Amino acid sequence: MNEFVSLAVTQADALKSGLGSVGYGLAAIGPGIGIGYLVGQSVQAMARQPEMAGNVRTTMFLGIAFAEALALIGFVLKFI
Amino acid sequence: MVPVLADLLPNVNELFEFKGFFGQHQWYEFNKTALMAFVSTIICILLFYVGSRKKAMVPAGLQNMAEMGYETVEQQIAVEVMGVDHGRKWAPFLSTLFFWIFFINIWSTVPFIYFPATSRISIPLYLAIQTWVIFIFVGFKHQGLGYFRNVVPSGVPGPLLILVVPIEIISKYFIRPFSLAVRLFANMAAGHVLLAVFCIMTSELIIHHNSGIWQIPLGILPFFALVAMTAFEFLVALLQAYIFTILTAVYVNESLHAEH
Which CA distances in Å does A55 have to A52, B88, B241, B260? Predict the structure, then answer.
């Protein structure tokens, strides 16, 4: 009986860790799409108006930082 | 049974926890993380102290480096975000922040050390709380008690305010420091784990694992990935310092001016 319980606990731990990885994968989808779109549009803006490149770059990094936060929270949750 | 990667990897905590040099499990415990934070501080101070000691008209060597770094932060971050007046005034603080974070992050790619001290949550958390305190303090200093009114956005119809004001308060005063700390911490920790995984793969496939004719080609592949990832980590270290500084500048700038 005891062996069975300990086996169940190990299995549950393994499952939990595996689910954490899957959760991180799911959490990375949205920010991935978002950052791709964001950088693509920024590059287009810089190409169209090179004189605004500095301004666009600053705003781009800000946007990346905000979009990235969700993915990073997913990454941290895996370890908790 | 052939060991899979998960069996080779140590527990993730072992990559980040170090034995203290002295004061084990005391509040003054001094370990590798703390040592690297101190060394980074000393490098930071030395660079700018020695760089600014001899104020030559035509800068050379270390002075050139220090001036170039400071001017880059001043122009690219401070003036870009806060305008010329406030930017010049806040540039010393922002460049201190930038170089300190950068020198701590960069340990992730330095041979024989390979550990960014920012991948322990305490240092990013301290930096985030510092930013949080500063932007609230600056808000009160420049706007007085009217700083509280900023959580009420203009042009929102009355009933919606019940929904909007709590969201504004949470996103401004709770999510901001949290995401600042977690962004820096998670980026550096993820990079550290990534490098460790490729190191273990390389050593396992070349030295320990016996796969006959495939030994060399299989072992060399993760090594190339390791080299590429090290270059990528250098970029990440620079980028995270930049992002942390620019977000601090944006938050402080928002507190300087009342919202319209």
Answer: 5, 18, 19, 21
Task: List pLDDT tens digits, range A21-45.
Answer: 888 888 889 999 999 999 999 999 9
The whole-angstrom separation of Cα B69 and Cα B61 is: 13
List CB contacts (< 8 A) between A58 and chain B. Answer: 80-81, 246
Structure tokens at B86: 């406030």
Contact list, B247 vs chain A (CB under 8 Å): 62, 65
CA atoms of B40 and B203, how far apart (whole Å): 30
Per-window interface: B 45-74 vs A, CB < 8 A: none
> What is the average pLDDT across B160-171?
87
A21 close to B (CB below 8 A):
no
pLDDT of B1 reads 44
Nearest to B258 by CA among B140, B134, B137, B94: B140
Q: How far, in Å, are A10, B16, B94, B151, B194 from residue B185 at the CA level? A: 29, 12, 19, 28, 14
Count other C-beta atoms under 10 Å from residue A5's C-beta. 9
Which positions ≥6 away from B168 have C-beta within 8 Å? Answer: B151, B152, B153
pLDDT of residue B260: 54
Q: Residues B240-253: pLDDT tens digits?
A: 999 999 999 999 99
Q: Do B179 and A69 touch (CB under 8 A)?
A: yes
> Looking at the predicted structure, is the pLDDT value of residue A5 above 80?
no
Q: What residues contact B76, with CB distance under 8 A and at least 6 apart?
A: A54
Q: Which chain B residues touch A72 with a CB distance below 8 Å?
A: 179, 182-183, 186-187
What is the ipTM for the molecules in this complex? 0.70
